[in-house]
Amino acid sequence: MSIKKYFHLAKNSLFPICRSLTGKGIKKTLKIIKKEFPKLEILKIKSGTKVFDWKVPSEWNVKDAYILDKNGNKIINFKNNNLHLVGYSTPVNKFISKKKLFNNIHSLPKQPKAIPYITSYYQKYWGFCASHNQLSKINKEYDNQDKFKVVIDSNLNSNGYLNYGELVLKGKSKQEILISTYICHPSMANNELSGPIVAMSLINHFKKIKNLEKTIRFIFIPETIGSIVYINKNLTYLKKNIIGGFNLTCIGDERQHSCMFSKYKNSPSDESLMQAYKKLKLKYKVYSFLERGSDERQYNSPGVDLPISSIFRTKYGQYPEYHTSLDNFNLVTLKGITGGFNVAKTAIEILLKMIIPRNKILCEPQMGKRGLYPTISTKKENEIIKNYMSFLQYADGKNSLDKISKILKINNTQTKKIYIKLKSNNLIY
Q1: What integer is the mean pLDDT of 255-277?
Q2: Which residues contact 232 (CB under 8 A, 6 or more apart)?
Q3: 226, 292, 414 from 410: Cα distances, Å
Q4: What is the pLDDT of residue 371?
Q5: How many domains would you assign to the chain?
């Protein structure tokens, strides 16, 4: 069973890796995925490259990070848990007072056993993270006048790169389904690895299907900046070919099923997702797009307007383990992952079969030269041409045949006949 295989791959091989927006962690992660799927293309973009309103950050790598007491004991050690270091911390090698040190150590008093996940991607900063219990112990064991040595062996390379992965399963149609997930968080299971586990399982499933109706495009990217980079590079192509798709994140626990529809809640992705939950007889929660926080923000942003929905189990920010060391493989289970996979697989299967017509002609086509305009005007003929023209108005790549039927207030059989007629005259695809 592929899900079980990728679950254990993530747990044993991917989980320990220190990942961030850039660097060796992402490269190592992509190499592991590529070993499973040799057709995965690993791409890169240079640090400092302008992408819309953003710049690709410097490549960050870290060899080691720790805090020593006066006796040379490591009181906080990055190598024990990579969440101990604030992401993108600048290099440090100096002695510091206890007071100043505590200003740069983050904890969660309300979750005293958890190490928080903290980053400072776009502002120079250094810091450590510890459980509140660990921090309280340090506070008790050391005097205020004690000095500590802080060592962060990191590097920020302005001539580095941001890496991401792309794999395409070619279908019969030019229409495409986009599946996006991210690979930029260190040692967290639900918020990081559940999406890639499901994505790999989906690749393994759909690559075995001959004559896919539509192309399925999978991307493995760092969150936010990765989707911005990808859109910046491929926007024209994406707007022309993507008819739907899903962002996969936080899809591995057993607590609930949930999702976030695209911005206006009326895309083929939203339609297929609702049908999938219904088919699987699952209760689910729909979050408002106003509560967005992952890459659905970028795909649905003005001017981009890609019909991408997000599939979750428990949504990011809505479970107590989120962005802490407690987000581990006690929270993410094979059963939870399998449930998330089934939703995504079913929704994709529905999208693959869904007819989503798109007009080939810019502005209103001339129907007469194609023999579609009646030579004799009758009430019946006028109704036919009206339905033709109305169909073309809504054949914009955003509506399924079923949805067009509802808009035109005609039955599905009539709609299908119109679709066949217009397609045979090369007016839609």
Answers
A1: 97
A2: 51, 52
A3: 43, 36, 7
A4: 78
A5: 3
For residue 277, the enclosing domain spans 2-57+160-353
- The four Cα atoms 161, 10, 307, 419 give a dihedral, to 10 degrees, of 120
Looking at 106, 130, 157, which one is the last position of a domain?
157
Residues 44 and 73 in one domain: no
Query: pLDDT at position 379, please?
Result: 58
Rounded to whole angstroms, the Cα distance separating 213 from 216 reads 9
Tokens found for residue 337: 């992952």
Task: Please identify which residue in the block is written with the tokens 């914009």.
Answer: 396
Q: List the structure tokens of 395.
A: 């054949």
Measured between alpha carbons, how far is residue 362 from residues 101, 393, 425 in Å? 64, 11, 15
CATH code for the domain of 198: 3.40.630.10
Spatial strand order in the sheet of 74-77 = 74-77, 59-68, 147-157, 92-97
Band of residue 12 on the pLDDT scale cut at 50, 70, 90: very high
Determine the pLDDT at residue 370. 83
